Amino acid sequence: MEKELSKAERTRKFIVETTAPIFNKKGYAGTSLSDLTDATGLTKGSIYGNFANKEEVAAAAFDHNSAMIRRQIQDRIQKAGTYYEKLLVYAQVYHSFTRTGTFPEGGCPILNTAVDADDTNPLLKEKAAQAVLRWRKSIENLITAGIQAGEFKPDADADGTALSMIALIEGGIMIAKVTNTPASLDRVLQTVNVLITALKAT
């Protein structure tokens, strides 16, 4: 049974969940204090009574958005029977990001935050970096487990495949968004599938 949240915790949760789509769509610099107060219906004092500053709200919003995607991936990975099927989940989940309402509004928060923060906001840049590293490690672990289970080739390149999968997925999302062509992402994700299939032991 989940413990009941305190009033302060409920308020923080409300602020984060309400402002997360705004930060993901408009970015840190593009999101104003009035955006936050208008969306939440709270005063500046109420927001900054729960968070030290806008940066802290943005960091919490990023955690919320990235966790939404992570939960979807983990749920589907747990249901997949083989390590090959578990890896395919990444392409399947990102394939649906423009087609369902289960993705955070505004698209992939890792891509959005990495581009938005760049070298101008060290905290958000670090948040995006940690998310990429966590993603990379998750893929590497699945490939390593697949090798040990005899599903994948003994010399399969776990690190190289993980990096390539992430680069293809994020690059595909960027191209699809900027050109407004979801089909571009579909083509890139086909390449991700080819990479994963190439891991299989003969």
TrEMBL record:
The record's section on PROSITE patterns has: HTH_TETR_2
Any Pfam family: TetR_N
Q: Which InterPro entries match?
A: Homeodomain-like_sf, HTH_TetR, Tet_transcr_reg_TetR-rel_C_sf, TetR_C
Q: Which UniProt keywords apply?
A: DNA-binding, Transcription, Transcription regulation
Q: Which residues form the HTH tetR-type domain?
A: 9-69
What PANTHER family does the annotation carry? HTH-TYPE TRANSCRIPTIONAL REGULATOR LMRA, TRANSCRIPTIONAL REGULATORY PROTEIN
Entry protein name = TetR/AcrR family transcriptional regulator
Q: Which organism is it from?
A: Mucilaginibacter ginsenosidivorax
